[in-house]
Write a structure and sequence with these properties.
By secondary structure, this protein is an alpha+beta fold. The chain folds into two domains: 78 residues, Orthogonal Bundle (Arc Repressor Mutant, subunit A); 132 residues, Winged helix-like DNA-binding domain superfamily/Winged helix DNA-binding domain (Arc Repressor Mutant, subunit A), CATH 1.10.10. The chain is built from ten helices and seven strands. The strands form three sheets. Strands 4-3-7 form a three-stranded antiparallel sheet. A hairpin with a 2-residue loop joins β1 and β2. It starts with a helix and ends with a strand.
Length: 227
């Protein structure tokens, strides 16, 4: 099996898949046909495929869950005309809540409210969970054992991110007019408790993360979520 055929098989698989494909899945497509299939061979084929798309309307993108072929962002306005539904619009409160979770995770609802200075609607938390952008990763070891919230791989995939450290800095997102500028000052003053590691890294301080998560809590007040 030559490189061109490998590239074409990967392209076909990525085109028909409705979600990103991880390296293990891509290898499994080919390993029955050749004993020489490995990660380096797959990466070489993906690099060639990425080059093929350099001047086209689509691109090969690596996100948290793997690789996918998608429309380039500069052409999204035209592609959106194919669909009757309008792109979802989110309130400033929802965006601020998501930003706090992303930059301060794992974080409790009370901590979010302290940073925003106002209460957080249950509807907002439910919406973020229904979109699978956040999830409960444990409980804070304080009276009441409040839930700890953190972002998910689906969150990273949606925003075209491969890992949490790919998030823009706070200074870079201050230009988003939907978000209260005072929020960034609060976040910067609070600092962040998030420790970023590669997926699969073991940590004795983790708040029971899923095996493929790349978020590990560096916090002595975290207890596993058992509910």
């Amino acid at each position: 099996m030559n490189q061109e055929m490998i590239k074409n098989i990967l392209e076909a698989a990525l085109m028909v898949s409705d979600k990103p494909l991880g390296m293990a899945q891509l290898i499994s497509l080919l390993e029955k046909d050749s004993e020489e299939i490995d990660r380096e061979l797959i990466r070489t084929a993906l690099d060639r495929l990425r080059e093929d798309y350099t001047h086209r309307g689509i691109e090969l993108r690596e996100v948290a869950s793997g690789y996918r072929i998608q429309v380039r962002s500069e052409y999204s306005d035209w592609i959106n005309r194919l669909y009757d539904d309008r792109p979802p619009r989110y309130s400033r409160a929802l965006l601020e809540t998501l930003a706090i979770i992303a930059y301060r995770q794992p974080v409790t609802r009370a901590e979010i409210e302290d940073i925003r200075g106002v209460g957080v609607s249950t509807t907002i938390i439910k919406t973020l969970q229904e979109r699978e952008w956040i999830r409960v990763v444990g409980h804070r070891d304080v009276p009441g054992h409040p839930e700890l919230l953190a972002t998910t791989r689906e969150f990273l995939d949606y925003f075209n991110l491969r890992k949490l450290s790919d998030l823009p800095t706070l200074s870079e997102i201050k230009q988003l007019t939907q978000i209260n500028p005072d929020l960034f000052a609060a976040l910067e003053n609070e600092g962040t408790t998030t420790v970023l590691t590669e997926p699969g890294t073991d940590s004795s301080e983790a708040a029971e993360p899923a095996p493929d998560e790349d978020l590990y809590a560096d916090d002595d007040n975290v207890v596993p979520f058992t509910g």
